[in-house]
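Re: that chain you flagged

S.,

Sorry for the slow reply, it's been a week of failed gels. I finally had a moment to sit down with the sequence you sent. For the record, here it is as I used it:
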Amino acid sequence: MKSYIQNLREKIGSDLLLCPSVAAVIHNAEAQLLLQEKASGEGWSLPAGAIELGETPAEAIIREVMEETGFPVSIDNILGVFGGKDFRYTYPNGDRVEYVVTLFRCRITGAQKPILDGETKSLRYVSAADMPPLALPYPASLLFGR
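Prediction finished late last night. Pasting the structure tokens below so you have them in one place:
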């Protein structure tokens, strides 16, 4: 089944699309941040994704984290909402988006299950000192603050 975004892309091509999205800040016991290496070769990101039609942001982040990492999570709080020109991104295929991202602090609530969606090459916890560049400019104080 095609996603809402795929259906829109068939109509507008690669034009700039405003996209409501979610992203997760998840720490391990050592206060390291969980990152996802994209299978598409786009580098590292927070577990994140678009909100589907009829889905709340909270439902979206729980679904996206499960799809991309295999971890069930609960939400602790919202860290912020971000958007604007700094949150524009062009995918390797030329599709352009401007994300409006609700950033959630989440907690893993159970054992990891196999990753199902094919978007993830690997997962890694990183410290602030070892943080690779991300595609979107989330404030480091929110990524590593407690």
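What I noticed first: Residues 57-69 form the longest helix (13 residues).

Talk soon,
D.
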